[in-house]
Specification:
- The chain has about 450 residues and is an alpha/beta fold.
- It has helices at about 10-20, 35-40, 50-60, 70-75, 100-110, 125-140, 165-170, 180-190, 195, 205-240, 240-250, 270-285, 290-315, 345-355, 365-370, 385-390, 410-415, 430-435, and strands at about 5, 25-30, 65-70, 80-85, 115-120, 150-155, 175-180, 200-205, 325-330, 355-360, 380, 395-400, 420-425, 440.
- Strands 3-2-1-4-5-6 form a six-stranded parallel beta sheet, with helices on both faces. Strands 11-10-9-12-13-14 form a six-stranded parallel beta sheet. Strands 7-8 form a two-stranded parallel ribbon.
- α14 (about 345-355) links the parallel β9 and β10.
- α13 (about 290-315) crosses α14.
- The longest helix is centred in the middle third of the chain and has 32 residues, at about 205-240.
């Protein structure tokens, strides 16, 4: 087992650090946010991720997991340093690497011998070389013995789904290791030894290939989601049912059933950012990713199309003025509080701009929504639960398919709302059931 420092206690860093400790490694999670580290030391979890608190508590108790603001000491005490800081999109769509660079240089200034520096953050192809250059530059500046320290830079991309990240990390489809030396590969295999014993497949590549694997995987999934959304839109025009189309498509082993669920568009921390970054990489390399660029545009249109769908369902242009909508769910998907690029933001802002008022609820995302929807705060009321949100509303909009919204008592819903209109943007309910309860029902692709 290895001794590991993880720089960054955001979503990727905290999940990775806790799970690596659960594999038997000794892990120090480091962050320059002292308040966050203090929260973690007291047993608080700053992000919403089911099951993560149990993993953290278990490994802190065992002594394998600790938290610190002292990056230099963590580096000195570790064999492997994971960089798991944010790479937010810049104005041109490229990934901003300023936090990655800052950590790489800080690692170099603290190095006391051979280290493996691992890019866990999602970074553009070629970042590994940049990290290597930043570290080498800092070591040269130190001079003396430090200038002779050896190190390796490894790309080890994460493939975590918010809401099931612990399961994804501990039971991955594959582990990708992009490294240039056998020494680094052997040390990375020690880090993941418990997975290799369980015969988890791993892919050994060079650094650039590992970096590309991450972007290619996420871009493909985004394309798949957008494709079925476009099919759904066509189904509405020609009288077909996208759920049956997707089910039949998914039975084809060449296609598979995952990510064939039509809806209001993708959001979250990965797909929007990674598709933008991959499109930028393609343009910079003189090999435009036309399918990815089209996907980005189509996904934004899908969000806006939901606003039109709701307006048309309420009676057409101008029908939203003065209407109140119960919006069930705000996060971009269930089991997370993440609202980054969530369809709810675009749709709620769109409804509000056409004169509607919103009564919204979400089991986890209300706190984040309160500032992400700042632009329309006078039109939005946040409610304790779905029943409060529906009270007196003119229609129900199922935005995020949390379990508690998937089996509502439709008779109670009807008696709670002012008008029996139900917009199911996740295709959770059967049309026959909702219409039998007396609702006008609008889904996606039906």
């Amino acid at each position: 087992m290895a001794t590991i420092a993880v720089a960054g206690t955001g979503y990727v860093g905290l999940v990775s650090g806790a799970c690596l400790a659960d594999f038997g490694n000794t892990v120090i999670c480091v962050d320059n946010n002292a308040a966050k580290i203090e929260t973690l030391k007291k047993g608080g979890i700053p992000i919403y991720e089911p099951g993560l608190d149990d993993v953290v508590i278990r490994n802190v108790s065992s002594g394998r997991l600790s938290f610190s603001t002292d990056m230099a000491k963590a580096v000195r005490d570790s064999e492997v340093v994971f960089i798991a800081v944010g790479t937010p999109p810049a104005d041109d769509g490229s990934a901003d690497l300023k936090y990655v660079e800052a950590v790489a240089r800080e690692v170099a200034r603290a190095m006391n011998g051979y280290k493996v520096v691992v890019d866990k953050s999602t970074v553009p192809v070629g970042t590994g070389k940049k990290v290597k250059g930043w570290i080498a530059e800092e070591l040269a500046n130190r001079g003396g013995e430090a200038s002779k320290y050896e190190f390796d830079v490894v790309s080890n991309p994460e493939f975590l789904r918010e809401g099931s990240a612990v399961q994804d990390f501990t039971h991955p489809d594959r582990v990708v290791i992009g490294a240039e030396s056998d020494r680094a590969k052997h040390l990375m295999k020690d880090v993941y030894r418990s997975l290799f014993i369980g015969e988890t497949p791993y892919i050994e590549t060079n650094v650039e290939t590992a970096e590309m694997i991450k972007y290619a995987s996420n871009a493909f999934l985004a394309v798949k989601i957008t494709f079925i959304n476009e099919v759904a839109n066509l189904c509405e025009k020609v009288g077909a049912n996208v759920q049956d189309v997707a089910k039949a498509m998914g039975r084809d082993g060449r296609i598979g059933s995952k990510f064939l669920h039509s809806g209001p568009g993708y959001g979250g921390s990965c797909f929007p950012k990674d598709t933008q970054a991959m499109a930028r990489i393609g343009r910079d390399a003189g090999s435009p990713m036309s399918i990815v660029e089209t996907t980005i545009d189509a996904n934004e249109r899908q969000k806006l199309r939901m606003v039109d769908k709701i307006e048309n369902g309420m009676g057409g242009v101008g029908s939203l003025e003065g209407k109140t909508f119960a919006v069930l769910g705000l996060a971009f998907k269930p089991n997370t509080d993440d609202m980054r690029e969530a369809p709810a933001i675009t749709i709620i802002e769109g409804l509000a701009s056409r004169g509607a008022k919103i009564r919204a609820c979400d089991p986890a995302a209300v706190k984040e929504a309160s500032w992400r929807l700042e632009a329309v705060k006078n039109k939005v009321t946040f409610c304790e639960d779905e029943w409060e949100a529906m009270t007196g509303s003119d229609a129900v909009v199922l935005m995020t398919e949390w379990n508690q919204y998937r089996n509502l008592d439709l008779n109670r819903v009807k008696s709670t709302v002012s008008r029996p209109v139900f917009f199911d943007l996740r295709n959770v309910y059967r049309r026959a059931d909702v219409e039998a309860a007396g609702f006008a029902y609008f889904a996606v692709g039906q």
